[in-house]
Design brief:
The complex is a heterodimer. Chain A is 27% helix and 40% strand. In chain A, strands 5, 6, 7, 8 and 9 form a 5-stranded antiparallel beta sheet that branches. Chain A has a 4-stranded antiparallel beta sheet with strand order 2-3-1-4, with helices on one face. Chain B starts with a strand and ends in a 23-residue tail after the last strand. In chain B, helix 1 packs across helix 2, helix 8 packs across helix 13 and helix 15 runs parallel beside helix 21. Chain B is α/β, with parallel strands linked by helices. Chain B is built from 21 helices and 20 strands. Classes of the chains: A alpha+beta, B alpha/beta. Chains A and B meet through helix 1 and helix 2 of A and loops of B. Bound molecules: flavin-adenine dinucleotide, thiamine diphosphate and magnesium ion (MG). Thiamine diphosphate binds next to helix 16 and helix 19 of chain B.
């Protein structure tokens, strides 16, 4: 199963490498990983997406909790949550695809944020599978470049990851 | 008044109660060595290799329960220490290792003797710190000792750039420390403990399986009390030996790959397994699919990540062993329920039947020295009261099987990493901590050569260690596997060109003896023990063909042992 794990960590040099090192040393996979400061400058927040059986996910959360720099973590997937990822896609419009690409982008609530005579750059936000679905609609030849931010997530309702 | 970082370092160690440190100097730590030179509160032991320093600190820690402290220089000093750090990590031993680092402004510059100590040690430490400001030295040292010694213990590295050890700051050492991101659990969950006791009392074929956590958590007395109150059998892992008296009737020996027949059979057939401070290592479980097929499992461990890592357990209890065992004892005392004495009696009959196989028997009439006989005799000659360190290989298994440890912290070996070269330097740490005790290092001609240079350290500090070299002229443990599983193709398992160990010991200023007849074993050991203030290197020429039995081959279940 796919899990989104959010972590509050001490904002120390090397904290990120402890998490990355843990995953490679123990052979866990990371699909995406994002890290950024929070409103509290002593903390940074990391969101990672991983896959594994229940046993593996249990070990992953235990091992992460064991890292001294980890202050608190939450497996978003354990409850209702909102997942968002941002994607920038540069596509080759040619002469005949401009209309179709614009329409597709609109359907997915994308925004065209840069235009040249041969290209569009589209910005799209949503859950990972929505971004995947949008890419599916594109002929691979059309895609020049894809940039994804990696997933971030937040729990719905009162549930929150904070100190 | 402001003092230098080096001075802060020395004062902080003193305030932390450190009496002895093990190390080796070099450019990056010269300010610190200078500060050590002008004080006499902390004794510095100069080993002959940084690996030796870490193992010695480790032996000190294992035999005392106090953290071992090491200081090495940057670059090669730090990389040489890595094997010792990894050894301590795998066995959860508290060490604080200070590594020198190039000055802060040169970090990342491929400076002279620069290595990324934080990066290199990260996977084999509980935590590490790079100190970048002189005013952080004292508090970081406080944190390092706190992290190393609490919760599941482990090594902590503190990387000290040279410049900050010269910079000045006010000294003050924190009394206490708390870290919001690190709060080890001590007390077990009361409800879980209650459920566990209920399950334990209902057992018909119970089994205590206890490990290094009992030693690390100073819980041998509570374990003994609990097991005796219930009259249940106890087995120990290699790391747990001494956690329950080995000469007690309820002790069924070590379990696992080279455990006794009775211990492994009892594991296989038990209906309630009480695992305490043990981590279900693959050397213990054998084939996981076949592990304890009929048992409900209680697992007490301070590290949640140890629980249900390899084997799914029914009643997990996160907490300090001693606390949890005491809580169990209290519940037993308050309740009226007793174990099912009829069932337990039957269980003991079954176990005694397995025991009667006498799986550790060996040929007593051989013309060659049997390694088992040397250890039996060592046990006898030392009244079972020595500190025994070991290296890694067959000799290690024989020491574990034949020296019966009645007390915790007497058996000092590298179980998790299995580091050849550990035995001699570890024995130095033990002897320095217990000046008047008998310290024996059981080793092999392969292992001893990995840190042999420490014989020089032993002379310098007058450490009267008794080295028992079970010299089978081969890397016996490797040879055994090649005999069993590679049709006797002995690739590189023979030790050619061995030194004359007697002369070698003598050239280091010690006493050397070679013993090649069984009838001389006891007298030689006695003679060596009488040389109270000398290191004696006893080179026992043993039967090369001897193998360690019983053995569970890889992939086997605990009831699938090869017996002699
Ligand atoms: C050649 C060779 C052969 C070997 N053969 C065998 C064999 O036949 N049998 C065998 O048993 N081993 C054998 N080993 C050793 C094996 O590799 C493991 O090191 C060993 O089994 C682990 O022991 P343990 O489970 O007691 O765990 P340890 O490594 O001692 O771990 C201790 C556990 O206790 C926990 N703990 C620590 N402190 C506390 C506390 N205060 N409260 C609660 N819990 C705590 C820790 O979190 C950890 O889970 C062999 C090793 C070598 C090198
Ligand atoms: C540093 C290191 N290298 C290699 C090994 C693999 N190994 C395990 S046991 C062993 C043989 C040890 O030989 P010796 O010390 O003579 O002991 P014996 O088995 O003969 O008693 C080897 C090579 C190891 N455990 N550690
Ligand atoms: Mg040998």
């Amino acid at each position: 199963m796919r899990h989104i794990i959010s972590i509050l960590m001490e904002n120390e040099a090397g904290a990120l490498s402890r998490v990355a090192g843990l995953f490679s040393a123990r052979g866990y996979n990371i699909e995406s990983l994002t890290v950024a400061p929070t409103e509290d400058p002593s903390l940074s927040r990391m969101t990672l997406v991983t896959r594994g059986t229940d046993e593996i996910i249990e070990q992953i959360t235990k091992q992460l909790n064991k890292l001294i720099d980890v202050v608190k973590l939450m497996d978003m997937t354990e409850g209702p949550h909102i997942e968002r990822e941002m994607m920038l896609v540069k596509v080759n419009t040619g002469d005949d695809r401009r209309e179709e690409l614009k329409r597709n982008s609109d359907i997915f609530r994308g925004r065209i944020i840069d235009v040249t005579d041969k290209t569009y750059t589209i910005e799209l936000t949503g859950a990972g599978d929505k971004l995947d679905a949008f890419l599916e609609t594109l002929d691979p030849e059309v895609i020049i470049e894809v940039v994804r931010s990696g997933v971030s997530g937040i729990a719905r309702g009162d549930r929150a990851l904070k100190l | 008044m402001e003092v230098t970082g080096a001075e802060i370092f020395v004062r902080a160690l003193h305030d932390e109660g450190v009496e002895i440190i093990f190390g080796y100097p070099g450019g990056a730590v010269l300010h610190i060595y200078d500060a050590l030179y002008t004080q006499d509160k902390i004794q510095h032991i100069l080993t002959r290799h940084e690996q030796g320093a870490t193992h010695a600190a480790d032996g000190y820690a294992r035999s005392t329960g106090k953290p071992g402290v090491v200081i090495v220089t940057s670059g090669p000093g730090a990389t040489n220490a890595v094997t010792g750090i990894a050894t301590a990590y795998m066995d959860s031993i508290p060490l604080v290792v200070f590594t020198g680092q190039v000055p802060t402004h040169l970090i990342g510059n491929d400076a002279f003797q620069e290595a990324d100590n934080i990066g290199i040690t990260r996977p084999c430490v509980k935590h590490n710190f790079l100190v970048k400001d002189v005013s952080d030295i004292a508090v970081t040292i406080k944190k390092a000792f706190y992290v190393a010694t609490t919760g599941r213990p482990g090594p902590v590295v503190v990387d000290l750039p040279k410049d900050i050890t010269a910079h000045k700051a006010e000294y003050s050492y924190p009394e206490n420390i708390s870290m919001r991101s690190y709060n080890p659990v001590h007390v077990g969950h009361a409800g879980q403990i209650k459920r566990a006791v209920k399950l334990m009392l209902g057992a018909r074929r119970p089994m205590f399986y206890t490990g290094g956590g009992v030693i690390l958590g100073n819980a041998a007395a509570s374990l003994t009390e609990l097991a005796r109150a219930l009259d249940y059998p106890v087995t120990n892992t290699l790391m747990g030996l001494g956690g329950y008296p080995a000469t007690d009737r309820q002790f069924v020996g070590m379990l696992g790959m080279h455990g006794t027949y009775e211990a492994n059979m009892a594991m296989h057939h038990c209906d309630v397994l009480i695992a305490i401070g043990a981590r279900f290592d693959d050397r213990v479980t054998g084939n996981i699919e076949k592990f304890c097929p009929t048992a409900k499992i209680v697992h007490v461990d301070i590290d949640p990540a140890s629980i249900s890592k390899n084997v799914k357990v029914d009643i997990p209890i996160v907490g300090c062993v001693d606390n949890v065992l005491k809580a169990m004892l209290k519940l037993l005392g308050e309740g009226k329920r007793q174990p099912d004495s009829g069932a337990i009696k039957e269980w003991w009959q079954q176990i005694d039947e397995w025991r009667s196989k006498d799986c550790l028997k060996y040929d007593q009439g051989s013309e060659l020295i049997k390694p088992q006989y040397v250890l039996d005799t060592l046990y006898k000659v030392t009244d079972g009261d020595a500190y025994v360190t070991s290296d890694v290989g067959q000799h290690q298994m024989w020491a574990a099987q034949y020296y019966r440890f009645d007390k915790p912290r007497r058996w000092i070996n590298s179980g998790g990493l299995g580091t050849m070269g550990f035995g001699l330097p570890a024995a130095m740490g033990v002897q320095l901590a217990h000046r008047d005790a008998t310290v024996a290092c059981v080793t092999g001609e392969g292992s001893i050569q990995m840190c042999i240079q420490e014989l020089s350290t032993c002379l310098q500090y007058a450490l009267p260690i008794k080295i028992i070299n079970l010299n089978n002229r081969c890397l016996g443990m490797v040879r055994q596997w090649q005999e069993f599983f590679y049709q006797g193709r002995y690739a590189m398992s023979y030790m050619d060109a061995l030194p004359d160990f007697v002369k070698l010991a003598e050239s280091y200023g010690h006493v050397g003896m070679q013993i090649d007849k069984p009838e001389d074993v006891e007298s030689a050991l006695k003679e060596a023990m009488q040389l109270k203030d000398r290191l004696v290197f006893m080179d026992f020429i043993t039967d090369q063909t001897e193998n360690v039995y019983p053995m569970i081959p890889a992939g086997g279940g605990q009831n699938e042992m090869i017996l002699i």
